[in-house]
């Protein structure tokens, strides 16, 4: 076993163990911190595949932005840590299902030869600019996927704002827009004498 | 060269580009007080404009757009135009209902157009990444559309259930995609098909297909994966239910077609057995559970489960790449279900929300015409002669008998007969019970004309089924 293989097994076992404990843990802050650990280890996996740009992006975007946001939300919501929830039935069920799934996956994947078909990069890391290549293919071959991703993010923003803005009136403040649009007709109703 | 390629693709993709830009215009229009009331008109206008401009760019040969990430041919255009038709009917009928429930806003219509666009991308995707993005675009918009109805607890429950379960299904699909890429080394679906034809089917290939089709079964709400459907039908605002019941089904049919077309896996014994088993189980569960429902939307949901089972059996029967039966079934089912839900939307577009089946009692005495329209659509979903639904079910059964699976055909027919009970019960309430609830809306001449379009076509296509079926057969083979 060379050092790369040892490193690979080390990193993957950390990922698997921490993702399992992430699901089991009751404390949400601990779970979020474990997610940080998972992302760092996945970044190491990327580095071992000679994809240093993706590794850096994973750390910067997920750990730097998304998970910090997660931690903020957890702290703002102040979710009480529940203890002693009886999960035995669920645990039994989920462990059985996952063992079956694992056995199936193991049987199928272990006997399949991947090496021949997966494309590998021929260039060595020195003469190959990862960022340049990704940028180039992102804006030429995969421009459509890139744009659709932008639209998905737009949908997420619209949804997040719209769900929070509609349906509830939180305060009794005045709405300047509505005030400006009011005119004489909507406020005053002139009734002639004979109608009375 | 690249720029030329992209502009050329954009020209071929112009209806979707129009819809994308118009959805943002509608979103902006919703924020101005003075433009707010034109949001609905803008939506109708943009959908009509997109479909009309799309006609100019129709061609019989197939194009690959955006470096073969999209495909455009007769099949995609046919299904897209059915989606346009369904979508227009849905939004026109649902206007009064939305006004009553205070849901008309710029966000609502722009998210609805995004959901439609997501389905269009699923229909025309030729690339695993684009396909997944299309699924996410349509389902993300749908979750938020359900959740927009903040005043109702049922809507929030439906949104959360749909969100969590649907995300799991998407993850399973993505897991399958990753193995498919790992085996074939390509994300292009045409290349994957080529790989499958040149190589022996390995277990891993089968496994990835099983994962993908579990995801598809979830989106179709086929029996073991149907748990979310009744709650979503019940909780979501009726126009959204109308959308979920029809357009994603068409999109996911094309998804399934793209993965199975010309692929030797359809003849694989294990895989086809899985599809058949899912279909049978779904027909069984759907028809039996629908018997016990008191609420009309839950009943329609379980009938949707049963019909999704029929779609899977039709996919199973696609021997020698003949997907026309399944395509015909999907088209006929989604059009009929749109008609049924639209009529219910129309009936509950005054102050009163039609929830229970016995709310429909005595409808015939008040407005016989609407009762007849609902009767025709329900009979078509049940598969009674004189409607398109009969022809669709007949074709599926015929294909089963052709494959010498007579026992299965008999079971399917028996379950359909069981299913007839709950459709006829609704008709019984409408025609033979008295005591009409005066809060039910029966007025609105324009809406009634729009509503009668589909039942009329249901009857017409039964008389001349070859008109439609021949066309579908031609484009699919």
Largest sheet of chain B: 2 strands, antiparallel
Regarding quaternary structure, how should these chains be classified? heterodimer
- Note poorly predicted spans of chain A: none
| Overall SS class of chain A | mainly alpha
What is the second-level CATH architecture of the largest domain in chain A?
A: Up-down Bundle
- List the helices and strands of chain A in order: HHHHHHHH
Strand content of chain B: under 5%
The CATH class of the largest domain in chain A is identified as Mainly Alpha
- Major sheet details of chain A: none
End-to-end gap of chain A: 101 Å
User: What is the overall number of helices of chain A?
Assistant: 8
Question: Which features does this protein show?
Answer:
heterodimer, A: 196 residues, mainly alpha, Four Helix Bundle (Hemerythrin (Met), subunit A), 8 helices, extended, B: 477 residues, two-stranded antiparallel ribbon, 21 helices, 1% strand
